[in-house]
Amino acid sequence: MRIFWLYSTLFKLKFNKKKKLLFVNGNGFGHGVGMSQWGAYNMATRGKKFEEIIKYYYSNIEIIQYNNNLTY
Known about the structure:
Elements: E1 11-16, E2 21-26, H1 37-45, H2 50-57
Antiparallel strand pairs: 1-2
């Protein structure tokens, strides 16, 4: 998703009421596909479990435990 023609959701908005101007300061260059590292980080800092974060970004998935018992 793009907003204000920014390629990343890492931006700040500042409104100057006197001049009636909106300033947009953006950073990053998101690809628009998959998980946002900053969005996932924010969810984690708010107490979301990794399963909830993954299922928020990816639909129709199943999370299973992987056991690699291979010997080389």
